[in-house]
Amino acid sequence: MSNVSHAGHDLAGHPDASEMRDRYARVMGGRDVALVDGPVFLVGLYCAISPWVLHFTTSQTTLGNHNLIMGIAIAVLGLGFTVMPQRMYGLSWAICAMGAWMIVSPWVVGSSPDMGVVLNNVIIGGLTVLLGLVCAGASLRSSRDRS
User: Fold this and answer.
1) Residues 41-62: what's their mean pLDDT?
2) d(C-alpha 39, C-alpha 131), whole Å
């Protein structure tokens, strides 16, 4: 019977080692913020369902519709970061802008919102800005590393 174990064998001497390293780097390139993609999606999902969770769909109809649309947009960007990270990291600044808009939207879109609605949107907006800044920072760092 032959010994098929690879214990003690190093791939450094393999003729294709450099090509395998380069391929691995290409496949994993841009994935340094993989842990942020999920939270961006979850914040967007919560933003979309928050009018029904906090029961302000009847008192703030336009703000409820606004949160639904913005939540779907944030969640789609989160999914885009997961599926096509190299192409989507340019949109990380858009997430920051969407977060800033979520912070001011209760006063712009809503009509005399109560403290719960304001606090909900400010927290969602703050988290969105924070996650967008993390994505933007990682995008800048990975673009510098490629140069």
Assistant:
1) 92
2) 8
